[in-house]
TrEMBL record:
Entries under Pfam families matching the protein: YbjQ_1 (PF01906)
Family recorded in the similarity comment: Belongs to the UPF0145 family.
SUPFAM superfamilies per UniProt: YbjQ-like
Protein name stated in the entry: UPF0145 protein C9I88_01780
Species name: Photobacterium iliopiscarium
Length: 105
């Protein structure tokens, strides 16, 4: 599966648009990470626990996007975008979406 944030795949022709595909995950805070984040907030610096959490969440969302595209018979997903939103206090959603396409062989 080819993933692209652009609307095309260089060197390949899109022959069919199969539809919008998505992958999402709702992630909640972890009390241990919150404690460390509070301490880090005092001295400054990267909140590595949260960085790791969002990297894992992004990987899971991308896997779900790929599964959605695969069910449509896609070769690629173009125009990929990521968005986040607060669901409730202490949790957020990471959503990835794009257009599933088939490519000229």
């Amino acid at each position: 599966m080819i993933f692209s944030t652009t609307e095309t795949v260089p060197g390949r022709e899109i022959i069919a648009i199969l539809g919008v595909v998505t992958g999402n995950i709702v992630q909640s805070k972890h009390i241990g990470r919150d404690i460390m984040a509070s301490l880090k907030g005092i001295v400054g610096g990267e909140l590595k626990g949260y960085t790791e959490m969002f990297n894992e969440a992004r990987s899971q969302a991308m896997a779900r996007l790929e599964a959605d595209a695969t069910t449509l018979g896609a070769d690629a997903v173009v125009g990929i975008r990521f968005t986040t939103s607060a669901i409730m206090d202490g949790s957020c959603e990471l959503l990835v979406f794009g257009t599933a396409v088939t490519l000229q062989p």
